[in-house]
Recover the amino acids of this structure.
């Protein structure tokens, strides 16, 4: 491993610290910033899962109902192209 000093903003430092803290809770062991960056890099390379977004979009029940209704309406219009 090569040790290097880098400069980052306070905002990015706090963000990375929060990621490392969450990983420490999850893994129940100390996690370095380097490990946190590896996890983030590997996560970016994985295909996303829609469930990863659960709880991230704040909306009212009424907005959620409209969203589900619109999605169902869209799926009804979608047709598999003939080959």
């Amino acid at each position: 491993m090569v040790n290097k000093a880098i400069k980052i903003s306070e905002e990015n430092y706090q963000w990375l610290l929060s990621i490392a803290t969450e990983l420490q809770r999850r893994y129940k062991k100390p996690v370095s910033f380097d490990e946190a960056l590896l996890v983030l890099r590997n996560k970016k390379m994985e295909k996303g899962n829609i469930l990863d977004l659960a709880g991230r979009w704040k909306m009212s029940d009424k907005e959620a109902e409209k969203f589900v209704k619109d999605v169902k309406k869209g799926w009804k219009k979608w047709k598999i192209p003939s080959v």
In short: The helical segments are 10-27, 33-45, 61-77. DSSP finds three helices and no strands in the chain. The mean pLDDT is 84.
